[in-house]
Each structure stands twice: as structure tokens, then as C-alpha cells.
Amino acid sequence: MDLFSETTFKCSKLITQHYSTSFTLGIKTLEAKYRLPIYGVYGFVRYADEIVDTFHDYNKHDLLNHFWQDTYKAIEDKISLNPVLHSFQMVVHTYGIDRELIDAFLTSMEMDLQRSEYNAEGYEEYIYGSAEAVGLMCLRVFCEGDDAMYQRLREPARRLGAAFQKVNFLRDIRSDYYERGRTYFPGVNFDSFTNDAKSAIEDDIQADFEAAYQGIIRLPQGAKWGVYLAYIYYKALFSKIKKLPPSRILQERIRVPDQHKVALLVQTYFRHKLNFL
């Protein structure tokens, strides 16, 4: 059984490595005890997201429903022949991940199949499920059963997830709007996307980043560098987006070059080692 479980975590690790070099880099900076559980969380959320965004020639509603049912069966049975779900259920049981977080995440995936535009309420619900809930799953891992710590850091963790997701929305406007027909930001018309509208979104994101940092500096030492690296990476991406006119981000997906990512890795390493976070 140990060999089977070890193999399933390696599958989730492989998924992470193939889908996200940035996330993989961030996980490698975590203390070793956190890495496999976070791979387990990422593999789960990545596969659900793939159903929604990629499997266009298949019945996405059926696939997502089956994935949802299989997730809870894996949790209840404490085993699954789906390696992604087996590793995830182990993380759920080991770290006490709330089922409300799992439901919120899967509901946000379902929303992508049902909605193309979001009002303010739907926007907040989607961000909570798709990003904040995932951050809270990771926080459960970092807190290792310390519920008092989890409750102290819960709100900053939510704000960090929200900031990441909103930056993703800005980065992916072209593909979301023109290819998938989705509009996440409520009340924004991307056919006439103005500087004022963009600035209002950016002010909201900046407030999330500021609130999130107060939680990062209080994380356990073994988790701090990895989360801070992700924070700095997204801040760099956000900075690039802020400098561009609305027309530019409607035309291309903004990226942080690999060499810049390496520089950020080195920069955050020394800040972490010198205890400057």
C-alpha cells in the first residue's frame, strides 16, 4: 500500500511539472515535508480545471460530475485507482481539509460550464471557489493540524488566492473573452476596455496583495519562502500588466521571462535566508 500511495503522489508531481514550471519551482522551495501534499492538491485542481478548459470534444458536464462523485468516493473509501484522487484523499484525511473547500472549488469549475458573465456576487463566489479555497487547502497543509494558526492566517490566505486569480483574469483576457466567451470582471465591457476600468481592477488587486503579505510573514518557516516566491512572481507579472494599456492585454498573454523568474528565485532566497521577509 505504501508503494501504491507513493506512486500516486509521484503522478501528481509529474502533472505539476508538466503543467506549471512556475508552480513546480515554488513547491521545490518548500520544506520537504510539504512538497508531496501540495503536489497532491495541485494534481486534483489541475485535472478538474482541464475538464472545463480543454476537453471540448467531450461532454464536460458528465466528466465533471463523474470527477466530483469519484472525489467523494475516494475520500469516503480512503482509496482510489485514480492516482490523482488517491493522493488527494490522503491529503484531505492527513491535514483535515474541509469538505466545504472541496465543494466550493468544484462548484466554481461547474460555474465555468454554466456562465459566460458574472455579476458581483457570482464573481466573489467564483474567486472564492477557484482560488481562495485552493489556497486554504494549502494552508491546512502548512498548519499541520494547528487550527489556531489556520484561523489566524485564513483571511490573508484568501486575499492571496484572490490576488493571484484576479491577475490571472487580467493576463488571460484575450483567451477568456475571445476564445471562451467568458467575462469575469462584473460590469466591464471588454469591447471598450478603458484605462479607468483597468485601474479600478488594479487597485482592488493591490489591496489584496497588501493584505496577503501580512499572512505570508507569519507562515511556518518551512512554507514561507515558497509562498513568498509565488507572491513576488505574481507581483512581477502584475507590475508588467499595470504598465501596459488596455489594448495590449487584450491582444496578448503577458508573461514573466524565465530569466526574470530565476532572478526572483535568487532574490527571494537571500531575503529568506537573511530573515528579511
Notable features of this structure?
277 residues, Farnesyl Diphosphate Synthase, 13 helices, 78% helix
Describe the secondary-structure layout.
Layout: H1 2-19, H2 21-28, H3 32-53, H4 60-77, H5 83-95, H6 99-114, H7 120-143, H8 147-171, H9 173-179, H10 195-216, H11 221-242, H12 246-249, H13 258-273
Task: Provide an overview of this structure.
The longest helix is centred in the middle third of the chain and has 25 residues. Helix 7 crosses helix 8 and helix 8 runs parallel beside helix 11. The model has no long low-confidence stretch (mean pLDDT 94). The chain is mainly alpha-helical and 277 residues long. It has a single domain, classed as Farnesyl Diphosphate Synthase. It contains 13 helices and no strands.
Counted by DSSP, the helix tally is 13
Largest sheet: none
Relative helix content = over 70%
Summing up helix and strand content along with how strands pair, one would put the structural category as: mainly alpha
CATH topology assignment? Farnesyl Diphosphate Synthase
Which second-level CATH architecture applies?
Answer: Orthogonal Bundle
Alpha carbon gyration radius: 18 Å
Low-confidence stretches: none
- Give the CATH class: Mainly Alpha
SSE pattern, N- to C-terminal: HHHHHHHHHHHHH
Inertia-based shape: globular
Oligomer: single chain
Q: Could you give the count of β-strands?
A: 0
Strand content: under 5%
Kindly give the count of domains: 1
Mean pLDDT: 94
CATH superfamily: Farnesyl Diphosphate Synthase
Distance between the termini: 40 Å
